[in-house]
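User: Second chain of the day. Same drill as before.
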Amino acid sequence: MVATTSNSTSIAKAARPMAKFPPQVEMILSAIETGEYSRQERRGVCRDPYRTEASLRLFSDAPGTPPWQIYTRDANEKGLGFITAHRLPLGYGGVLELEAPDGNVLSIPCTLLRCREAAPGWFEGSLYFNRIQPALGPAEGEEDSARA
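Assistant: Same format as last time:
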């Protein structure tokens, strides 16, 4: 169940506008992004801003349990950052469903790496994809030193 797409689209240059989130979600994302400018980037591959609603089904969820709703903040071909109103269990695997920049819906096997409280009742987290997702990476020929 690996996401595939015929053309690779840069998230930063995606034609469709960023998703419109509820005001509380926008406020939390804004606060997180503002606080990040004082920290040094530690990732080997930077992430591009990418906001969309997504759903996450964990393999440990009971049958019939609705998926967890998350709001993405940034992504690359290896993983993404998000916020959610749910404390999610670290290290658990599942399947993420989200709309790619080209409009295709992707189903991506993933593993939850981090989920910590960012504001009362809201959690900031990240997950990594079990396989590289070209649809969320840079467009062909767009590699630069910041991404290498």
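The domain at 23-35+48-135 is CATH 2.40.10.220 (Thrombin, subunit H).

User: Great, on to the next one.
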